[in-house]
Recover the amino acids of this structure.
């Protein structure tokens, strides 16, 4: 691997430093102030300028993230709020907005997009005929059981920084879904690999929807930054697009009173089924790129929230279309996992210099 302009293997690094943390690694800490107090966090440093936090008590989502000190993981005014403060039914189903911050917020496991009250007859419990779901579901505010983390040398000479955990979303007379998440980054590298498995651990057919809300903030996002897509066609736009007439490719500075703009795009995959939408900041000479498999995430949303004080753009690969769960149930596209059935999602977050 390359570090600081030179190539190293395990032995040559060991000759220079008695602890791998001189080069990079994974460190476990607990946040200890304000609304963040008590959140277990894993700090990743790759030694190549990439650093990021894994919020163990927030579904092992990704919090702050930087390249050479320049942030790209969005920081909102909510901070990384402890899940114990979360009230799922608060704000008429929009409670997610009180804990919405960071590079990645995971949506699911049984519901994504706007709130919906849906049939729950498959659970065979007469007092609970329906399930009421809020914006983007429950999983992002569930703590994980941390099963391991550290640094592991591979046979090919790479050192992989890693963490694994399990998030359980379960209710009596309800769903029993488990998310097993592995996060990897190479020592000397500038990419984050996310490998997720969602399994129906219960004994009833269970709804499954999944979405990554990947959020890029300042300074990667700035006036003149370009949002680049392998665009085939745009299949849906929010009403605010026509009302505001603000470009979705070249970013303006923060806009007073901006109303979020959302697009659903159909993207053109390469020969392996992969797409790589990106944000490029030529002034800083940096880019952020998301690589995912369109067989796993057939839908993609572009989120623009360019308001003062909440300046962000989003990349949202999704299993279902923007109309949400009610529409998916009506048109037959809703996913139900049979007992023991699982889905795999493998995604790469990549940053670099142009």
């Amino acid at each position: 691997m390359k570090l600081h302009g030179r190539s190293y293997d395990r032995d040559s690094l060991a000759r220079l430093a008695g602890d791998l943390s001189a080069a990079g690694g994974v460190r476990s800490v607990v946040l200890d102030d304000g609304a963040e107090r008590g959140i277990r966090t894993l700090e990743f440093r790759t030694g190549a300028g990439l650093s990021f936090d894994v919020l163990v008590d927030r579904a092992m989502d990704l919090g702050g993230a930087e390249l050479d000190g320049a942030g790209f993981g969005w920081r909102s005014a909510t901070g990384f709020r402890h899940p114990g403060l979360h009230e799922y039914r608060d704000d008429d189903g929009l409670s997610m907005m009180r804990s919405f911050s960071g590079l990645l917020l995971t949506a699911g496991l049984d519901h994504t997009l706007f709130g919906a009250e849906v049939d729950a007859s498959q659970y065979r419990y007469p007092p609970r005929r329906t399930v009421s779901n809020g914006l983007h579901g429950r999983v992002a505010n569930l703590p994980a059981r941390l099963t391991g983390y550290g640094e592991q040398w591979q046979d090919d000479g790479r050192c992989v920084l890693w963490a694994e955990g399990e998030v359980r979303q379960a209710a009596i007379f309800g769903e029993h879904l488990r998310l097993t998440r592995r996060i990897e980054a190479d020592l000397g590298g500038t990419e984050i690999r996310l490998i997720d498995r969602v399994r129906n651990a219960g004994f009833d057919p269970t709804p499954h929807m999944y979405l990554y809300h990947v959020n890029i903030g300042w300074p990667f996002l700035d006036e003149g930054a370009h949002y680049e897509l392998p665009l085939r066609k745009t299949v849906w736009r929010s009403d605010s697009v026509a009302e505001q007439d603000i470009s979705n490719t070249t970013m303006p500075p923060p806009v007073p009173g901006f109303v979020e703009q959302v697009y659903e795009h159909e993207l053109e995959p390469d020969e392996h089924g992969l797409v790589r939408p990106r944000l490029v900041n030529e002034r800083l000479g940096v880019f952020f790129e998301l690589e995912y498999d369109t067989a796993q995430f057939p839908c993609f949303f572009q989120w623009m929230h360019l308001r003062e004080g909440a300046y962000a753009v989003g990349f949202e690969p999704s299993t279902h279309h923007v109309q949400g769960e009610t529409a998916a149930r009506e048109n037959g596209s809703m996913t139900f996992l049979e007992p023991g059935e699982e889905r795999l999602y493998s995604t790469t977050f990549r940053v670099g210099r142009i």
Remarks:
- The chain has one domain: 22-353.
- The helical segments are 10-16, 239-244, 325-331.
- The chain has a mean pLDDT of 97.
- The chain is about 5% helix and 45% strand.
